[in-house]
Write a structure and sequence with these properties.
One of its GO terms (molecular function) is N-acetyltransferase activity. By secondary structure, this protein is an alpha+beta fold. It has 5 helices and 7 strands. A 7-stranded mixed sheet has the order 1-2-3-4-5-7-6, sandwiched between helices. The model has no long low-confidence stretch (mean pLDDT 90).
Length: 161
Protein backbone atom coordinates (compact mmCIF):
# COMPACT_ATOMS: atom_id res chain seq x y z
CA UNK A 1 0.00 0.00 0.00
CA UNK A 2 1.21 3.49 -0.84
CA UNK A 3 2.38 5.45 2.21
CA UNK A 4 -0.16 8.24 1.65
CA UNK A 5 -3.00 5.72 1.37
CA UNK A 6 -1.81 4.17 4.62
CA UNK A 7 -2.10 7.57 6.30
CA UNK A 8 -5.37 8.37 4.43
CA UNK A 9 -3.80 11.59 3.12
CA UNK A 10 -3.64 12.86 -0.45
CA UNK A 11 -1.69 15.53 -2.33
CA UNK A 12 -3.60 18.78 -2.79
CA UNK A 13 -3.07 21.16 -5.68
CA UNK A 14 -4.26 24.37 -7.25
CA UNK A 15 -7.80 22.98 -7.67
CA UNK A 16 -7.99 22.52 -3.87
CA UNK A 17 -6.96 26.05 -2.86
CA UNK A 18 -10.51 27.25 -2.16
CA UNK A 19 -11.02 24.37 0.30
CA UNK A 20 -7.65 24.99 1.94
CA UNK A 21 -8.39 28.70 2.30
CA UNK A 22 -11.83 27.99 3.80
CA UNK A 23 -10.17 25.76 6.39
CA UNK A 24 -7.54 28.45 7.04
CA UNK A 25 -10.30 30.97 7.80
CA UNK A 26 -11.70 28.61 10.44
CA UNK A 27 -8.33 27.88 12.05
CA UNK A 28 -6.00 30.88 11.90
CA UNK A 29 -6.07 34.57 12.78
CA UNK A 30 -3.21 35.25 10.35
CA UNK A 31 -3.78 33.46 7.05
CA UNK A 32 -2.00 32.92 3.77
CA UNK A 33 -3.45 34.59 0.70
CA UNK A 34 -4.65 32.79 -2.41
CA UNK A 35 -1.64 34.23 -4.24
CA UNK A 36 0.77 32.75 -1.69
CA UNK A 37 -0.79 29.31 -2.12
CA UNK A 38 -0.79 29.60 -5.91
CA UNK A 39 2.82 30.73 -6.14
CA UNK A 40 4.04 28.07 -3.74
CA UNK A 41 2.23 25.24 -5.48
CA UNK A 42 2.93 26.36 -9.02
CA UNK A 43 6.64 26.87 -8.33
CA UNK A 44 6.95 23.67 -6.31
CA UNK A 45 8.14 25.61 -3.25
CA UNK A 46 5.96 23.49 -0.99
CA UNK A 47 3.54 20.60 -1.03
CA UNK A 48 0.17 20.21 0.66
CA UNK A 49 -1.33 16.96 1.88
CA UNK A 50 -4.95 16.79 2.93
CA UNK A 51 -7.47 14.41 4.38
CA UNK A 52 -11.10 14.41 3.29
CA UNK A 53 -14.32 12.81 4.37
CA UNK A 54 -17.24 12.65 1.94
CA UNK A 55 -15.44 15.26 -0.18
CA UNK A 56 -15.01 17.78 2.65
CA UNK A 57 -11.47 18.84 3.53
CA UNK A 58 -10.98 18.06 7.23
CA UNK A 59 -7.32 18.90 7.52
CA UNK A 60 -4.13 19.72 5.68
CA UNK A 61 -0.41 20.08 6.18
CA UNK A 62 1.80 22.33 4.05
CA UNK A 63 5.50 21.59 4.07
CA UNK A 64 8.67 22.24 2.12
CA UNK A 65 11.64 20.00 1.46
CA UNK A 66 14.88 21.76 0.51
CA UNK A 67 18.38 20.28 0.65
CA UNK A 68 17.33 17.42 2.93
CA UNK A 69 15.48 19.65 5.38
CA UNK A 70 11.74 19.48 5.86
CA UNK A 71 9.90 22.50 7.22
CA UNK A 72 6.32 22.28 8.40
CA UNK A 73 4.73 25.51 7.22
CA UNK A 74 1.10 25.06 8.31
CA UNK A 75 -1.04 22.31 9.74
CA UNK A 76 -4.77 22.72 10.28
CA UNK A 77 -7.75 20.57 11.21
CA UNK A 78 -11.39 21.51 11.01
CA UNK A 79 -12.57 22.69 14.46
CA UNK A 80 -15.38 20.09 14.54
CA UNK A 81 -12.93 17.27 13.77
CA UNK A 82 -10.14 17.96 16.24
CA UNK A 83 -8.92 15.38 18.77
CA UNK A 84 -9.57 12.57 16.26
CA UNK A 85 -5.99 11.97 15.16
CA UNK A 86 -6.17 13.94 11.90
CA UNK A 87 -3.16 16.13 12.68
CA UNK A 88 -1.21 13.02 13.68
CA UNK A 89 -2.02 11.40 10.33
CA UNK A 90 -1.12 14.54 8.39
CA UNK A 91 2.16 15.14 10.18
CA UNK A 92 3.08 11.46 9.93
CA UNK A 93 2.37 11.45 6.19
CA UNK A 94 4.46 14.59 5.63
CA UNK A 95 7.39 13.14 7.58
CA UNK A 96 7.12 9.85 5.67
CA UNK A 97 7.08 11.64 2.31
CA UNK A 98 10.12 13.69 3.22
CA UNK A 99 12.06 10.73 4.60
CA UNK A 100 11.39 8.75 1.44
CA UNK A 101 12.81 11.70 -0.51
CA UNK A 102 15.99 11.77 1.57
CA UNK A 103 15.27 14.28 4.33
CA UNK A 104 17.32 13.88 7.46
CA UNK A 105 15.74 16.51 9.66
CA UNK A 106 12.66 18.65 10.08
CA UNK A 107 11.88 22.06 11.52
CA UNK A 108 8.82 24.05 12.51
CA UNK A 109 7.75 27.01 14.57
CA UNK A 110 4.68 27.19 16.76
CA UNK A 111 2.99 29.76 18.96
CA UNK A 112 4.10 29.44 22.56
CA UNK A 113 0.43 29.21 23.60
CA UNK A 114 -0.49 26.40 21.18
CA UNK A 115 -0.16 23.55 23.69
CA UNK A 116 -2.08 20.94 21.63
CA UNK A 117 0.27 21.48 18.68
CA UNK A 118 3.35 21.43 20.91
CA UNK A 119 2.15 18.13 22.42
CA UNK A 120 1.68 16.69 18.90
CA UNK A 121 5.15 17.73 17.79
CA UNK A 122 6.75 16.30 20.93
CA UNK A 123 4.87 13.03 20.33
CA UNK A 124 6.75 12.76 17.02
CA UNK A 125 10.07 13.50 18.71
CA UNK A 126 10.47 17.19 17.86
CA UNK A 127 12.55 19.03 20.45
CA UNK A 128 12.55 22.75 21.22
CA UNK A 129 15.72 24.40 19.96
CA UNK A 130 15.00 28.12 20.16
CA UNK A 131 12.60 31.03 20.46
CA UNK A 132 11.71 33.83 18.06
CA UNK A 133 10.64 36.73 20.26
CA UNK A 134 7.52 38.69 19.26
CA UNK A 135 7.28 36.63 16.06
CA UNK A 136 3.56 36.68 15.30
CA UNK A 137 2.31 40.02 13.92
CA UNK A 138 -1.24 39.79 15.28
CA UNK A 139 -0.30 39.70 18.98
CA UNK A 140 3.54 39.65 19.09
CA UNK A 141 3.53 36.19 20.65
CA UNK A 142 6.80 34.28 20.67
CA UNK A 143 7.35 31.36 18.29
CA UNK A 144 9.02 28.25 19.64
CA UNK A 145 11.39 26.58 17.18
CA UNK A 146 11.39 22.79 17.04
CA UNK A 147 13.69 20.30 15.30
CA UNK A 148 13.34 16.61 14.50
CA UNK A 149 16.20 14.34 13.49
CA UNK A 150 14.50 11.64 11.46
CA UNK A 151 14.81 8.03 12.51
CA UNK A 152 14.93 5.26 9.93
CA UNK A 153 11.39 4.49 8.71
CA UNK A 154 11.51 0.96 10.11
CA UNK A 155 12.07 2.17 13.67
CA UNK A 156 9.28 4.74 13.89
CA UNK A 157 6.56 3.96 16.41
CA UNK A 158 3.99 6.20 14.70
CA UNK A 159 3.71 4.14 11.49
CA UNK A 160 0.11 3.60 10.34
CA UNK A 161 -1.27 0.11 10.77
Amino acid sequence: MDTLQAWNCWPLGVADIADVMALERMCFRTRWTREQFLLGLERGAFQILGTRERGALLGYVAYSLIAGEMEILNIATHPFHRRKGLATRLLGAAIDCCQRRGAGEGFLEVRRSNIPAIDLYRKFGFIEVGVRKNYYPDNHEDALLFRLDFLPLTSRADQPT
